[in-house]
Amino acid sequence: MLKGLGGLGDMAGMMKKAQEMQTKMAQMQDDLHGITVIGESGAGLVKATATAKGELTSLDIDPSIFNGDDKEVVEDLILAAIKDAQAKAGERAQEEMGKLTEGMGLPAGMKLPF
User: Fold this and answer.
1) How many CB atoms lie within 10 A of CB 56?
2) Which residues contact 52 (CB under 8 A, 6 or more apart)?
3) Cβ distance 31 to 96 under 8 Å?
4) Which phi and psi angles does 86 have, rounded to 5°?
């Protein structure tokens, strides 16, 4: 189509691919809000649920861990569950990004900004 324009034809193709990627990235960002992961600590006594974007959505604490003398232990379990959920959210986001870059023909492991 733009054969007579030399390298500009390639530029038009690159621009089209860039626009496609931008659209797919925006869609993926929306999709990450709908994907949930669950982080756990204390063998499941504390569970933190987060979106793949890392937003904490709920916290489930087994009542058996509530004892006035164990306040620090409970706090540590809660913090560990939240950190686990955030780590899983990051991993899931990277998986989804990998699917996107693979589908666009980009090298495996290429990191794109969120």
Assistant:
1) 15
2) 31, 32, 33, 35, 36, 37, 89, 92, 93, 96
3) yes
4) -65, -40
The H-or-E segment that residue 83 falls in is: helix 71-103
Q: CA triplet 104, 107, 112: central angle to 5 degrees?
A: 75
- pLDDT tens, position by position, 26-58: 888 888 889 999 999 999 999 999 999 889 999
Sign of the torsion angle spanned by Cα atoms 102, 104, 110, 111: negative
pTM: 0.68
Residue 47 host element (H or E) = strand 46-51
Whether 3 shows a pLDDT value over 60: the answer reads no
> Facing residues of 2 across strands?
none
What percent of the chain has pLDDT above 70?
82
- Rounded-to-integer distance, Cα 32 and Cα 9, Å: 35
Selection from 87, 73, 82, 89 nearest residue 40 by Cα? 82
Contact 50, 85 (CB under 8 A): yes
